[in-house]
């Protein structure tokens, strides 16, 4: 069960470089008191209005620190104040690598690191390729498996939570279940009744599944 008291939160704007030398903008939300890890959140499709203050990303960004996690959200290239332009997930994967490196090198970061990707953001995690060992878990929210192919070989053996709504035309439950059934490793699948791809007014069920899942891994990582 998640804690009922509220921690005081601290918010800080950050800027960091990706491997291409582009400057990306982001925000860190950290809790008062002890911190047990860092979560990096990636946002939905930039060409359809996706950015780091999206309802799903924003809700988790504020909720995760209540469980003692530092949360970093950032805008992909060409979004908001981030430099560059859209690159169909390929360049954005390099942006994510830049965010991971930023966390690894920052004085304010805490380990282990977890990744949460929503929709296009989940696709970006899929495209990022081998991740550094410090990344200990991944959450894929509504990965658009009904629109594009997700290659099984790109998934590693880190614990991964797949979560989608049962009314999602871009991530149909049957398609997501089929993908997960082909994967090896520690994979968890959750289908939330009544939710579609956009999770409006359904952010609370996401928080209630994702936050405890990440916390459960903290004591199990080497």
Task: Give a brief outline of the structure.
The chain is an alpha/beta fold. The chain has a single domain (9-218), classed as Rossmann fold, CATH 3.40.50.
Write the layout of secondary structure elements.
Blueprint lengths: L8 E9 L5 E9 L5 E6 L12 H9 L5 E6 L15 H16 L7 E6 L1 H8 L7 E7 L18 E6 L7 H9 L5 E6 L10 H16 L4
Parallel strand pairs: 3-4, 3-5, 5-6, 6-7, 7-8
Antiparallel strand pairs: 1-2, 2-4
Helix pairs in contact: 1-5, 2-3
Multimeric state of these chains? Answer: single chain
H and E order: EEEHEHEHEEHEH
* Highest-level CATH class: Alpha Beta
Structural class: alpha/beta
Assigned CATH architecture: 3-Layer(aba) Sandwich
Low-confidence stretches: none
What is the molecular shape? globular
CATH topology call: Rossmann fold
User: What would you report as the Rg, rounded to the nearest angstrom?
Assistant: 16 Å
What portion of residues is helical? Answer: 25-40%
- Compute the number of structural domains: 1
Main sheet characteristics: 8 strands, mixed
* Count of alpha and pi helical runs: 5
List keywords for this structure.
222 residues; 5 helices; Rossmann fold; 8 strands; alpha/beta
Provide structural commentary.
The protein is α/β, with parallel strands linked by helices and 222 residues long. It has one domain: Rossmann fold (3-Layer(aba) Sandwich), CATH 3.40.50.1820. 26% of the residues lie in helices and 25% in strands. It contains five helices and eight strands; from the N terminus they run βββαβαβαββαβα. An eight-stranded mixed beta sheet has the order 1-2-4-3-5-6-7-8, sandwiched between helices. Helix 4 (173-181) links the parallel strand 7 and strand 8 (187-192). Helix 1 (55-63) packs across helix 5 and helix 2 packs across helix 3. It is globular and about 45 Å long. The mean pLDDT is 94.
């Amino acid at each position: 069960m998640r804690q009922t008291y509220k921690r005081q939160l601290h918010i800080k704007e950050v800027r960091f470089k990706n491997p291409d030398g582009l400057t990306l903008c982001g925000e860190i939300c950290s809790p008062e008191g002890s911190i047990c890890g860092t979560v990096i959140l990636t946002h939905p499709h930039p060409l359809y209005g996706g950015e780091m203050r999206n309802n799903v990303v924003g809700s988790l960004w504020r909720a995760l620190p209540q469980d003692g996690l530092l949360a970093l959200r950032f805008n992909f290239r060409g979004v908001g104040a981030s430099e560059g332009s859209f690159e169909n997930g390929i360049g954005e994967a390099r942006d994510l690598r830049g965010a991971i490196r930023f966390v690894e090198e920052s004085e304010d970061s805490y380990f282990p690191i977890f990744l949460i990707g929503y929709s296009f953001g989940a696709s970006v995690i899929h495209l990022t390729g081998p991740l550094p060992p410090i990344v200990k878990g991944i959450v894929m929210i509504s990965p658009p498996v009904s629109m594009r192919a997700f290659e099984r070989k790109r998934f590693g053996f880190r614990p991964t939570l797949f979560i989608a709504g049962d009314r999602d035309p871009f991530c149909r439950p049957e398609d997501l279940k089929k993908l997960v059934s082909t994967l090896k490793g520690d994979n968890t699948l959750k289908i939330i009744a009544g939710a579609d791809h956009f999770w409006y007014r359904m952010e609370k069920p996401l928080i209630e599944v994702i936050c405890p899942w990440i916390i459960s891994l903290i004591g199990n990582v080497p």
